[in-house]
Amino acid sequence: MEITATDYHTAGEPFRIVRDGTPEISGATVRERREHAAASAEVERVRRLLCHEPRGHADMYGCFIVPPDDDGADLGVLFWHKDGYSTACGHGTIALAAWAVDSGRVAAPRDGEVPVTIDVPSGRVVAIVRRRGGAVDGVTFRNVPSFVLARGVPAGRVEADVAYGGAIYAFVPAASLGLRVVAEDLPRLIAAGREVKRALEGTDAARHPQDDRLSGIYGTVLHEQLAPLHHRNVAIFADGEVDRSPTGSATSARTALLVGDGLLAHGQTWRNDSIIGTTFHARPIGEGPDGLLTEVDGTAFRTGEHRFFLDDRDPLGTGFVLR
User: Is the whole-model pTM more than 0.90?
Assistant: First the structure.
């Protein structure tokens, strides 16, 4: 087996884009393809190969490029991590849009902006890519509608607010668990994130109101406020994975919570930092019939071009994870 991929990072979070070597994934829509990928032993073999050690790690993230739902989008994508396939990924959308322009898949001016339209499992999103001097200078990600699902839900030792931004997240102030969003507290943040997610799984708060394929608590976001419009958070997603970026889809969901609390007005920008100190800026830009419309600003950088191999004689096969 041979697979080629291009790696990016968005605000420190890895994103591996598979260019060649993905088995065919059937389905009429990206959402259907996500279901079929998870049920395909052949596709799962490739995901594990690229996520697991020694080619990846417990916090690896990436995607398969698939056809869009129709001619209205430039491409479709299936986001994956070590435990399966997510419904949305803001940092991945930012990286994918930068790659689409860098690779020439989407034509862009040397100086100026170009939209990259992407079908993801949660819907259709648009990333506005800015170029200066022929290089990508930044990306603004316009997400699917975001909305609040529940407030003050019992979640083990704490209460959580639950909101949707392409995926469903539980939000908990880190201080309510005696924690800070700092690297020194990371083992306890991971344990707390897992505990909150387990407590909410299967509850009404974890259910998407229109499509059960989008249901389930994807991650727990532990957050703290640094200033009125300056926050820091860490998302513990899947089974204990740690997002190094501020998490784009969760930033959209948190924007809906801040607007609901009266702490953020339409058009007003707030700053969300990650546990490693990287930053996204986000703003509400209007109300749609299905929820709050948001934008998230970030940037992505290419980190490598790869050819991965699987030797049939290798006793480790598609690899392993230690967490």
Answer: yes
Any idea which residues carry the catalytic annotation? 89
Whether 161 contacts 148, CB under 8 Å: yes
Q: How far apart are CA 43 and CA 63, in angstroms?
A: 12
Encoded tokens for 134 = 């022929």
Q: CB within 8 A of 70, min separation 6: which ones? A: none
Closest CA to 169 of 212, 208, 219: 219
Burial zone of 133 (CB within 10 Å; 0-12 exposed, 13-18 middle, 19+ buried): exposed
Whether 15 and 92 have beta carbons less than 8 Å apart is answered as yes
Q: Is the peptide bond before 115 cis (omega within 30 degrees of 0)?
A: no
Q: Report pLDDT digits (tens) over 18-71.
A: 999 999 999 999 999 999 999 999 999 999 999 999 999 999 999 999 999 999
120: helix, strand or coil:
strand
